[in-house]
Structure formats: structure tokens, C-alpha cells
Amino acid sequence: MRIAYQYRLRPTASQITLMNEWLELLRKQYNYRLAERIDWWKRNRCPINACPLICHLPELKERPSFYSQKRDLVNTKALFPVYKAIHSQVLQNCVERVQKAFNRWLDGDCNGKRAGRPRFKGVGRYRSFTFPQMTQDCLQGMFIHLPKIGMVKLILHRPLPDGFKIKTATITRKVDGWYVALSLEDASVPVLTPDIPTLDNTIGIDMGLKAFLVDDLGGEVAIPKHYRRTEKRLKRLQRSLSRKQKGSNRRQQVVKRVAKAHLKVANQRKDFHYKTANSLLSRGKHIAYERLNIKGIARTRLAKSTYDAGWGQFLHILSVKAERAGLMTIAVNPNGTSQNCSRCDHKVPKAIHDRWHACPHCGLELSRDQNAAINIKNRAVGHPVLKAQEMSLTGVTEKPALYALA
Q1: 251 lies in a domain?
Q2: Is 304 domain-assigned?
Q3: What CATH number is given to the structural domain containing 337?
Q4: CB-based burial, 273-295: b 16+ in 10 Å, e otherwise
Q5: pTM for the whole thing?
Q6: What does the alpha-carbon distance between residue 12 and residue 394 come to, in Å, rounded to a whole number?
Q7: Could you tell me if 161 and 184 are in contact, meaning their C-beta atoms sit under 8 angstroms apart?
Q8: Averaged over 339-358, what is the pLDDT?
């Protein structure tokens, strides 16, 4: 089992200067290694639709790999002795980041989804570095020992869980200070096998913008709208920023105030997502939700409200916490969940402003979101609506087939 604990650091002025120097050197190294790979890509590609029949084929250049670039770090330290001050594994991790970003662009991730072309890091855009191996005695009271940096004070707001070993440590610079994220692992923790979803052990939730989510029993979670509430202050700060001269100290001060305001909104949203996920999983049931095209919705007029709700982050947090609790998150096809009746499965057309479901065939009347949540639950357990209704009345249970697993 792998978990992560984040703590706030209280480094000294000399340690802050040293870590800032490391980040700047790592940023330059990242850009250099990325430029090597992009140069290889430009030299070895050929536009098939514009290639002449008779042409000279240049000698293909060997593709840079993680190991070849890692071996070249010796030459980097010989040419630039300042890199000797950085821990060797931190430098190697910088090369590993370049490889992951480049491979996601050309080859895609484990699901075959390709990312965009990696960009060079501007000044201040490289904000973290990682120690891939940490000793188990690195934590000593209220201090943590970081190689070549020394003993750094941290706020140990919660102790490490028993039995877990420290694997990696990532130091991150944020606008309000420095943080360390410890990756912990305990191989003795067994992987829980979840039960097969049924009507009794599954909850259906319908996510929206009027209410953050509505479950199949009609319970609602109000949407907090953190960004909307901070919008006036952000406008005022942006106005102040636009009046400052570029490159001045006062402009840098206002930039920090704007960044802190955005960071506070992000922290409030994440805290709300964690508390909501814990509240749902405390029931001990599987969670079924719609597989929405969040990026597509964010391109419409609902973009600001969609980003403010943060559905994607919430579903990621929910899936991770459900896996640790031995539960499942089940994503279903969203087509027709709001239009179809959850009792008789007849289609009842509704516009976006119609928030009440009234079926003329069976007489069912309830909230539109609750009706959608019930349909999501029925699809998750793999039952047709009529069969699910019949089984819930008779109390007969059987093992259903899964519709789709997240």
C-alpha cells in the first residue's frame, strides 16, 4: 500500500537560498535535456505528404534515452562544477521527468492517451525536486534530514503511520512557503477485494452545478462556489497588478498576493472534496457516477462554474480513497440518465431548466437529479430498470454483471 503525507517546512534563510539555486539549475538542465530530445525528433521525422521521390536521406541520429542522458551528467558536472552541489539522484530524477513528459507526447500513457508537446520551463516554473531514496531515520523529532541540504525544520502535524517505510521525498516551493511530501509504503497491508455491486451496497450520485451532488435517496451536497465568492477580491488584485510597472518590486508583491488568493481557493476546494468523499465512503458502499466529458463541458458557457466545482479532482480523490477502503467507484454511460424514468424506463424529455421529473406513464414524480442518480445506480449494478425494481420489491438478490468499472 502506498500513501503520501505532506508537511510544511520551516527552512532557514541559507537553506532557502540553496534550494532556490537547486531549482534554477534543475530548470536549466530540464530545458537542455528536453532540447536534445526535440532536436532528435526534428532531425529524424519526414513529412510523408511532401517527401520527393528522389531525395537524400540523412543519417539517422540516435534517440536520446534516460540512460544515455543520465551518463552524460558526468560531462555536465565537469563543464559546470556548480552542478556538483546538487545530489546525484535529484539530477537523475530531473532527466526522468524529461523522459516521462516526452514519452507521453509521442507514445501516450498506459491508456494510449497522448499529451501535448512538452514546453520549456520559464523562470520560476520549475518548483519541485525529488529525492528518490530516503533513509528511515531521516525524521528526527521536528526536523528532517535532506542530503546536501541538512536538517530542515518541519511542522509534524500528524505522526507517520506504524509499519510504513519512507520511500521518496519531494520538496515543493509554493507561494506561501516550502513543503515536503513523503511517499510511504507498507507491503504487509493486504489489497482488499471489493464485493460485487448490488442494489443494496451501491450508491448512485448525480453531479451538477445547482447542487454539487445528489444521491439516489435524495440527499444533496450544496456547491460551495469558492471561486465565485473570491471573485471580487481577485478582480481588485488584478486591477492593482495591471497598474504596476513591469519589473518593479511592487509588481512582484502584488503577484504574490494574487497567487496566494488563488492558492487559498484551491486549498478550500480540495478540503471540500476530501470531506465530501469521506462522508460518502463512510456509508461503506460502492459509488456509481456518470462518466462525463468534463473537458467538453468546460469549453461551454459553463466553464467557470465547472472549474469552480472541480469534478475531475473530486472523482480522482474519491477513487483513490475508495480503493484504500476496499470499495469501488463505477463510471456509467451518461446518455439518458436525466431523460429516462427510473421506474418504467420511458423517456420523458426535459430541457436544461426543467428540474422536476414527472412521468406521464407511471406517475413517478421526484427531483430530476434524484431520478438521474437512481438511473446511474441501476446501470452500475448491471440491471435493467424493471428488473431492478422487481428485485427491490421481492427482496431477491443475485450477482449482477458490471456495467463499467472506473
Answers
A1: no
A2: yes
A3: 3.30.420
A4: beebbeebbeeebbbbbbeeeee
A5: 0.83
A6: 68
A7: yes
A8: 87
